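quick one, four chains, predict together pls
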Amino acid sequence: MHRIPAPARFNRKAGIRAESESTIIAAAEQVFATYGYRGASTSMIAEQAGVSKAMIYHYFETKELLYQIVLERTHNWWGEAAELLDKFSEPVEALTAYIHRKMDMSRENYYGSKVWASEVMQGAPILQGYLETEVREWTKKQIERIRSWVRAGKIEPVEPFYLLLMIWATTQHYADFEHQIATLNGGRPLDDEQHRAAKDTVTRIILKGIGASIKSRRSKRRAKS
Amino acid sequence: MHRIPAPARFNRKAGIRAESESTIIAAAEQVFATYGYRGASTSMIAEQAGVSKAMIYHYFETKELLYQIVLERTHNWWGEAAELLDKFSEPVEALTAYIHRKMDMSRENYYGSKVWASEVMQGAPILQGYLETEVREWTKKQIERIRSWVRAGKIEPVEPFYLLLMIWATTQHYADFEHQIATLNGGRPLDDEQHRAAKDTVTRIILKGIGASIKSRRSKRRAKS
DNA sequence: GTCTATACACTGATAGAC
DNA sequence: GTCTATCAGTGTATAGAC
């Protein structure tokens, strides 16, 4: 395809297109998160986005394509957190950074997490290939890394797979079950202080639980996100 | 489309009505678990149950009523695990029994857990009343109990709410994400040995993470008054 | 109790005016 | 780019034969 870098004043149409697309994607993410793929209707997405239903089909060929794009976004979004785990060589730093980031992401945008959960509960018809390749490879790699920490005596013997599942489960729970958590919290979502306490509690229990508790106190507690 | 395994019949020798009803309920539980309330259709439930669609409406007035019954069953089923927590006065025994039971239940019937998760992701339109009364009261009570364990020096200081959420998240993850876990496990569900290892790992990390491991129980005793 | 036939709202998707 | 009108199919739910 022949792409021409156009001047800014000729990009107005492309600007409108990009804006409409992301508005629709954001709306679709919310509706898919709430009702799942089959339960979501294009009219609901259109209404949520504030556009006519025909606009959905103007920008996206089918409902399934739109769903795939939403899933792709979520997968890329979580990929960022996954990379974090590799950026630190020590278990305490790596796990702390990973857990905190995932907790923040669960709070920042819980819709993506819900769409993923819904997709997996369906049997991952769209994500299956991705699960069997990238996610599986990443998991194997992290399992080996955790094993090396055990061999180096940095953490106590632990089954790495179930440790990883525990971290995923706990951090994503704050996204997928945000409504239940808010209800039990008196009808209000966790405030900043509660969110910080939740992150600290989760991190402390896991690190201490695998014998990797923090030895030196560091005031790395800046306001994140 | 994703195929659902055949339903398990709960009744052995009961009336035709009772047997048909429980067959339909079991089928409905699977379909609701897979596609959510809106995404599930009565034809799919009928096919899964091996009866005609009209039979669904013969035994259950509406799709929503059938859904409510499925949710009610799940709620009662989990209530059994909830009671377990009160049957032991010591944190190690209570939490071990509770975690093990919830892990077993997640394996025994993950459909109920999925339906609950799906309902909550919708904003709990049906379960909201339960969440605001029974679940909230139970949670408050357990929070107080955990606080008393902290005061008695039986466990280290911990925010009880986030500990409870962690236990729920982790144990239910094995139900809600069983497909993803099986995929990462080479396409096979966790076998008996792996399930046992998962239970042990989860229990050990949590107990050790709150300073309630069996070994240190006696030495952690402190004069309180 | 079980089935087929059917009413009618809603679904995904398209055509065509502007 | 945006809208209304529309189609074929599926959705929930009911009626009535056997």
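Residues 16-17, 20, 51-52, 54-55, 58 of chain B lie near DNA strand C (CB under 10 Å from a C1').
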